[in-house]
């Protein structure tokens, strides 16, 4: 089993040598009964519990770094053993700590590491936690760690204590955990508009990211080799002030952003109707305008009847500078998008491990009340 280190703690597997330490804290009636288990009767009793209970997978002794001695316990409880109705892709967490260590924030520190382990290493989609009526310390710990109240179960048998109790359950999704993790840092949101848009559109996102500073970029150039430099300058300026940057990009703004080689500086991206394959889009426009590649190469620039200017220099640049994007990305796509096909955006999402959400009836330009309501709910998760 693994071992984890935090700022002040080590979380490691239990072993029989921990029996004396376990007994010294577990014999206290203030610890076990309120968590649903009886006080330990002896060191031998604690040793047996280490063998029979605490040796379970994903169960760890909570230890201070300075001496590695167990002062508490924390563990992940699989769905089949959960106190509530956890789904197969969900996990429950349980914990306790000795009275001398109350009030130091050790258990919240341990819980946060187990959340990271459950969501990142084990890929669970949600985590449950619970506390019996009256256990205010555990309730506060769960609130500190991002759990929110889910439901209460009354007249619930507590088998180890031989009584009936009221148990309250809290819940945390992986997406909520990711959002909470970003909130722990000083975070900026950068909005990059699409064609015909402007930085003022960023105002809409301030209510969607109320805890972050939201900025809009009014780029002044319209070719990827120029606009990418404007985006780089803005991102580098934000990095001077912020630890984390979230990118929200619309349409061609997403293409410009991916072309700017900023993915190492972006913690997360939200793309709305993104242009994800510019070469294909240019080829489609050439076909719609009945322009051949040979003709474009000779004339260099051709203005189409529907107002778009085709450029041989632009097409050549796109071919010579393929997109490389390694950022956790969520994509919103309208099913009637007339610039990017569902096959193209699906392929991009698959290749870049992005999450794709499709609004039936949605357009390339999200602007109606219904579309904006859908967009808002999508970002809020």
TrEMBL record:
<protein>
    <recommendedName>
        <fullName>N-acetyltransferase domain-containing protein</fullName>
    </recommendedName>
</protein>
<dbReference type="GO" id="GO:0005737">
    <property type="term" value="C:cytoplasm"/>
</dbReference>
<comment type="similarity">
    <text>Belongs to the acetyltransferase family. RimJ subfamily.</text>
</comment>
<keyword id="KW-0808">Transferase</keyword>
<feature type="domain" description="N-acetyltransferase">
    <location>
        <begin position="9"/>
        <end position="178"/>
    </location>
</feature>
<dbReference type="InterPro" id="IPR029058">
    <property type="entry name" value="AB_hydrolase_fold"/>
</dbReference>
<dbReference type="GO" id="GO:0008999">
    <property type="term" value="F:protein-N-terminal-alanine acetyltransferase activity"/>
</dbReference>
<dbReference type="InterPro" id="IPR016181">
    <property type="entry name" value="Acyl_CoA_acyltransferase"/>
</dbReference>
<keyword id="KW-0012">Acyltransferase</keyword>
<dbReference type="Pfam" id="PF13302">
    <property type="entry name" value="Acetyltransf_3"/>
</dbReference>
<dbReference type="InterPro" id="IPR000182">
    <property type="entry name" value="GNAT_dom"/>
</dbReference>
<dbReference type="InterPro" id="IPR051531">
    <property type="entry name" value="N-acetyltransferase"/>
</dbReference>
């Amino acid at each position: 089993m693994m071992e984890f280190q935090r700022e002040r703690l080590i979380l490691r597997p239990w072993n029989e040598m921990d029996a004396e330490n376990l007994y010294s804290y577990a014999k206290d009636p203030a610890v076990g009964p309120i968590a649903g288990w009886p006080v330990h009767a002896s060191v031998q009793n604690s040793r047996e519990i280490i063998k029979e209970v605490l040796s379970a997978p994903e169960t760890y002794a909570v230890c201070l770094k300075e001496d590695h001695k167990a002062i508490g316990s924390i563990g992940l409880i699989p769905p089949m053993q959960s106190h509530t109705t956890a789904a197969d892709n969900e996990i429950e967490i349980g914990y306790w700590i000795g009275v001398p260590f109350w009030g130091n924030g050790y258990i919240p520190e341990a819980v946060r590491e187990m959340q990271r382990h459950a969501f990142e290493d084990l890929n669970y989609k949600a985590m449950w936690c619970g506390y019996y009526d009256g256990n205010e310390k555990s309730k506060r710990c769960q609130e500190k760690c991002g759990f929110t109240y889910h439901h209460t179960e009354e007249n619930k048998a507590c088998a180890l204590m031989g009584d009936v109790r009221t148990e309250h359950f809290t819940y945390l999704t992986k997406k909520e955990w990711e959002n909470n993790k970003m909130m722990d840092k000083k975070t900026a949101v950068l909005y990059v508009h699409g064609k015909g848009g402007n930085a003022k559109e960023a105002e809409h996102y301030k209510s969607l990211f109320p805890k972050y500073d939201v900025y809009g970029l009014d780029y002044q150039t319209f070719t990827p080799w120029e606009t990418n430099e404007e985006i780089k300058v803005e991102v580098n300026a934000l990095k001077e002030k912020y630890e984390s940057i979230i990118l929200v990009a619309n349409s061609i703004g997403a293409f410009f952003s991916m072309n700017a080689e900023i993915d190492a500086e972006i913690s997360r991206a939200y793309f709305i109707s993104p242009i994800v394959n510019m070469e294909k889009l240019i080829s489609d426009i050439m076909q719609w305008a009945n322009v051949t590649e040979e003709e474009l190469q000779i004339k260099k620039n051709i203005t189409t009847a529907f107002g778009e200017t085709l450029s041989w220099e632009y097409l050549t640049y796109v071919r010579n500078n393929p997109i490389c994007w390694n950022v956790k990305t969520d994509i919103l796509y309208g099913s009637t998008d007339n610039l990017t096909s569902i096959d193209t955006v699906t392929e991009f999402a698959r290749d870049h491990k992005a999450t794709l959400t499709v609004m039936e009836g949605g357009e390339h330009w999200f602007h109606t009340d219904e579309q904006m309501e859908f967009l808002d709910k999508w970002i809020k998760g």
